[in-house]
Structure formats: structure tokens, C-alpha cells
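Side project, low priority. Logging it here so it doesn't get lost.
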Amino acid sequence: MSDRHIFGKESCNQGHSIISLIEAAILRQEPLLEKPVDLSRGESSRLYGPDGQIDSLTLVSVIVDIEDQIRLQFGMEVCLADLTVLPKGEAPFATVASLARYVARRLELALTSEI
């Protein structure tokens, strides 16, 4: 099953939007990086951690950018630095797909807490 379908049938467009948002946030960091992040593997592209392409400072910048874009595009405040909602051992920043799943989960939590 493709990672693009992890968001469920009804939110597949949202999943695509989240992935685009993540890729754009990463690309905005490129002028500050020694070498560009290779996103040619799509959602499987490694980001942070073992074999990751970005360091912790770049990761923080990408997370802040994503939070800003969520606020602008979805009108929601989401804190992606809060890892308390993760099962132990999960690595939300390892790949584009894992980050997209994490962002979608945080958006769902924000939506249910606003109801």
C-alpha cells in the first residue's frame, strides 16, 4: 500500500497537500544547506536520523515552516515539536512519508480538540 493512501480515502487530497507542504518547506531550506536534499525517492526520501540528509537545525527550521504553512493554509495551530503523542520508538522525522503521517495525526488531534 502506498504511503499516499495512509490518510484514508476521504483525506487523500489532504495527504497530498501535506506532502507538498513538507517538500516545499524542505526546498525553502536549500539556500542554507551545503548540498540540496535529494527528494527523488518521493515519500521514501530520508530526512533525519540514520542516513538522513538534514541536521537538527535544518529539521527545526522545516518543522517551524510546516507549522506556519498549516496556520496559513488550514487556519490551525499545530505544535509538531510535541512528541508525547507518539508510540515509543516511532521516528516521525525519518522520511517524507513518516513526517506526513505525523503531521496528519497532529492535524486530526487538533481538529478533534476544537470540536
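Brief comment: The radius of gyration is 14 Å.
Revisit when time allows.
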